[in-house]
Amino acid sequence: MTNTILITGTSSGYGKAITEHFLEKGWNVIATMRRPDPAAFEGDPSRLRVLPLDVTDADSIASLIEAAGPIDVLVNNAGIGAVGAFEATPMALVRQLFETNTIGVMAMCQTVIPQMRARRAGTIVNDTSSVTLGAFPLAAAYTASKQAVEGFTGSLAHELAHFGVSAKLVEPGYAPTTRFSTNAIIPVEQLIPDTYVAFAQPIMEAFARPTLTTKETDVAESVWNAVHDTGGQLRFPAGPDAVALARML
Fold first, then answer.
1. Bridge partners (DSSP) listed for residue 226
2. How high is the pLDDT of residue 211?
3. Helix H or strand E segment including 4
């Protein structure tokens, strides 16, 4: 029997790469995004379903799970970004970050756990970020939303292990080719006031010339490894920069 994986946030970047990786490996894939576009993916279309999902909407989640049917693996990849001085970050943006990056993950987990618990089998993979591995400036609110998922997943892993279900973390590094900046609700320029320019400029210049970066395929491979892990490993850094940070902990 072919396994089925459900992935959130697949319109581009990591989610798209994870979708195509599992299709290539012969899995049935349910790819979700706000505006479904099956033509966005390479791979066997007979094994792919593209369904609508807004992880901040309870009705959208319920409709998805009903349409999806039984799933063996859930990958929570949907997320939004924010870069800038925390002082200049509106609390409305902070709430949006947590609604998508944190509460959205929790809501998806809570919805699929019953079927996995009943079967005493299944894996949940929550994608976070390498910002959880080191203190990055100009990312305080975003980091908080991802650190919350780290703590949540670690605790959840203990709960679910009793029922034969796994919970894992994949921690992607910095990928300049992804749409992190374009997924930001407020452009970074608007979140760096004049009083922070002298501090922020060298940081932004360093991000423009990174020495180590993560590829989308690095994240897809790390998710694959997390899904197939049998040794009880919780965290899977993805990309050479994330691996280097994890080794320093």
1. none
2. 86
3. strand 4-7
Q: Is position 174 annotated as part of the catalytic site?
A: no
Q: Model confidence at 52, in pLDDT bands (50, 70, 90)?
A: very high
pLDDT in tens, 72-107: 999 999 999 999 999 999 999 999 999 999 999 999
What DSSP string runs through 120-136? T--EEEEE--GGGTS--
Dihedrals φ, ψ of 108, to 5°? Answer: -65, -45
**Residue closest to 4 by CA, chosen among 156, 94, 19, 82:** 19
> For residue 112, what is the domain's CATH number?
3.40.50.720
Put simply, whether the predicted model's pTM sits higher than 0.85 gets the answer yes
Q: 19: domain range?
A: 4-248
- Please, are residues 128 and 168 in contact by the beta-carbon 8 Å criterion? no
Instruction: Pick the catalytic residue from 14, 142, 174, 196.
Output: 142
| Inter-residue contact 161 to 153 (CB < 8 Å) | no
pLDDT classification of 181: cutoffs 50, 70, 90:
low
CB within 8 Å of 166: residues ≥ 6 apart? 122, 123, 124, 157, 160, 229
Sign of CA dihedral 18, 23, 27, 29: positive
Partners of 1 in the β-ladder = none
SS3 79: coil
What is the SS3 assignment for 159-170?
HHHCCCCEEEEE
How many domains would you assign to the chain? 1
- CA dihedral (59, 60, 61, 66) in degrees, to 10, reads 90
